[in-house]
């Protein structure tokens, strides 16, 4: 999961204020894309999971924290290069800066847990467990029976991953649950911040804060190979696929659909992760894992629709 998902989820309906493109730009974009928001959101999931799959190839050389540090640092550089001063706007309110630092810490913990998880369990399994974080946020405090049922369905799906036939590594599952908890906290923090700061500089500075937090542990575990050309090139590709490109696609999608519809479409992410894990990494899932993923996807989509 990237920084962008939490910020986008916290922004509210499409067109909400926050430093986004002007209305004429939105109109031209909508005409150009023919209203293809579903394709954009699928593109978000595909790009994100491709970046994660690519990152796993470097775990044996620089470790999960090494490639994660490159991802955060280089993604901030990419956003600054593409958007210029808008990405590093000095208008970021002073009152938001402490919150951005906290958001960066949570982002670092969330992605560190996820990378440690996908080093031990298939990408689709890790993504399925991680998605319970935003799902619980969506249904927390609700007293409507239907939303409680969605939570129970997701819980049943996660329970399937503990079935004897699933064979999920316990430590990998624990890291994925840690990522889910951090994602939930990230969304709650982001919701408090996006009302007082434009999302683009908020995202960029959050990535910078995460990179700062990860610097010491990443350098301590990665070794000198972190600075070799192939590793840096792959890190740049991971930063683009898992952070910069999804941010651009989410901006476009949120201009075409409501936040609720965006959440429903993004619920396909665990299924996309499983497909990419199969094609790119040869990670075939058994029946318990597929059933668990189906439960979480349906529950997440249902909760997002109920929230509309």
Mind explaining what this structure looks like?
Helix content is 77%, strand content 0%. It is globular, with a radius of gyration of 18 Å. The protein starts with a helix and ends with a helix. With 308 residues, it is mainly alpha-helical. It has one domain. The longest helix has 26 residues. 55% of the residues are buried. It has 14 helices and no strands.
Number of helices: 14
Beginning-to-end CA distance, first to last residue: 23 Å
- Quickly count the domains: 1
- Would you report the number of β strands? 0
Averaged pLDDT, please? 81
Would you identify the regions where 5 or more consecutive residues have pLDDT less than 50?
A: 11-34
Estimate percent helicity: over 70%
- The shape is globular
- Biggest sheet, in brief? none
Q: What string, H for helix and E for strand, traces the elements in order?
A: HHHHHHHHHHHHHH
Approximate strand percentage: under 5%
**What is the structural class?**
mainly alpha
Radius of gyration, in angstroms, nearest whole number: 18 Å
